[in-house]
Amino acid sequence: MANNVSAHAPSPNSRSAAVLDTYREVVTPEGVALHLPAAGPVPRALAWAIDLAIRMVVLSIVSMVVALLGVAGYGPYLIVMFVVFWFYPVLFEVLDHGRTPGKRALGLRVIAANGAPVGWLAAFIRNLLRTVDMLPFGYAAGLVASLADPWGRRLGDMVAGTLVVHDARQHEPQAAPVGVALAPAVALLPHEQAALVAFAERGPQLTQERQAELADLAEPLVQARGTLAVARLYGVANWLLGRR
Amino acid sequence: MRQETFVQRHQAEWTALEQWLDARAGNARKARAHRREWHGLPDHAMPERYRRLCQQLALARRRGYSPVVTDRLQQLMQRGHGVLYRTPPPRWRRAVEFLLAGFPRLVRAEAGVMLAALALFAVPLVAIFVAIQLQPDLSSALFDPVQLAGFEQMYDPADPSRDLGRDNGTDLAMFGHYIWNNISIGFRTFASGLVAGLGTILVLLSNGLIIGGVAGHLQAVGHGDPFWRFVCGHAAFELTAIVIAGGAGLRLGLNLIAPGQRHRIDALVEGGRRGGLLCVGVLVMLVVAAFIEAFWSSIGWMPAWIKYSVAAALWLAVLVWLFAGGRNRLYADDGLAPGLGA
């Protein structure tokens, strides 16, 4: 683990208030919390299966080439098998920013537990310890560990100090529609303000019915239902955004 | 400050940082080569800009700005964090330095577990060897008759094909076999230490029993000469590598059981880091062993005295390397293989 990063695994009670989330919160040296969305066993198992298929294909191609060479090809084949078995994930994880082809397909990434990119040694250790995660069969130990761990880490991840996270989904940021500003009837708390602005920003991507349905929840605030409530909420959001 | 004003005020800064990350943050060498063609944010300004961004993100969160702003800033920050705190690429010089100095130092630093691993491996080996000399029937309790016949046939002094050794194709095939088989065993010896050290102990004991049993049996039935001539050379690297991998595994298991005044997870991470570094050395040792085993040990016609002198030289080299390597250097313990940083 890089010594220059003072970030440390937070104790369970310092996790964010959103208990149901699988974010791992890491405080960087700058004093700002990074939210790392940890990945659970299912997408990781799928990524592993894809990688396994790729490895099988590589090995069968190599074995076909090698079959033409006779006995002389047997040695190189075993060396290729050694590299593919032990170093395929290490090489990809370090050289492709924490992603093997399978992880790339599933939108996963291995990072150090402090949010930094994974280094050679950490990648080597976490993949060496697959041996233990596979015990007694079919990654059972790894599955139990990742179900018990709040961040879905298998044993190798814990020892190597790494974490598998979901890549941030790229969605274009959209500004809330500009319109009339409307002062809210009561003073709103910060998280309420944030929720309203978030609604205004995401609302246009939803259907009319869904917008109205959501806006109905805010009836006490805007004293209306349906499309009128939607319009009023957009107005309040505009006011909160400072367009007045 | 309202969100819109905030975004308007800092938009240009964020875009500049984004462009810098897109263009300059990938390959450090390429970035150096093209530094004159870059006219955006200068490289030296990046840390400062990154810290400003962190402050802005903290402000945005505190003031409850919407996810459109905070998510974007968080993503930017994550990318900046990755660049600023990435581990330096490994360098050849440092890798050689690690092998010559850092690795022997690390082995000596773990002398306790290394001795334990040596005992777990060597005691059953010697014991079973001696026992079979006294009571040759014992070997049939260890192996079934087909296996015994196989060993005997492999090292039969009367077999004329052994005199000339193998042809090159077979040598290469055996090299691949030793790489795949022996290094995998070495790695598993370390990794299975995570099962409270039990896995490592089992591997060491069983390897000691099997190797001692085979050697004892061949000695007892009179096939000792070709056997010793074959194994003496590569044993220097192979047996020490297995003991070192075992020591690394025991260290890991010990850190799990008795973490001392640390969090168990911190002790495990430390044990894993040291074990991983030891495994890098074990990997190199076993590659050397496989090379010797495939291309030197297999030469059948070589007179015994040459084989035994080379073996003595190899043993001496390994022991000098492990006991003296890195003693003359100012080499901070936590600076072990800095390029490999976990």
From TrEMBL, chain A:
Keywords: Membrane, Transmembrane, Transmembrane helix. The chain crosses the membrane at residues 106-125. It comes from the Bacteria. Pfam families: RDD. GO terms for cellular component: membrane. Residues 39-161 form the RDD domain. Its main location: membrane. The keyword Transmembrane helix applies. It is found in: Membrane. It is a multi-pass membrane protein. InterPro entries: RDD. This is RDD family protein. It comes from Agrilutibacter terrestris. The lineage of its organism: Bacteria, Pseudomonadati, Pseudomonadota, Gammaproteobacteria, Lysobacterales.
Automatic annotation (TrEMBL), chain B:
It comes from the Bacteria. InterPro entries: SpoIIM-like (IPR002798). The chain crosses the membrane at residues 111-132, 190-215, 227-254, 275-299, 305-324. It holds the Pfam family SpoIIM. Keywords: Membrane, Transmembrane, Transmembrane helix. This is Stage II sporulation protein M.
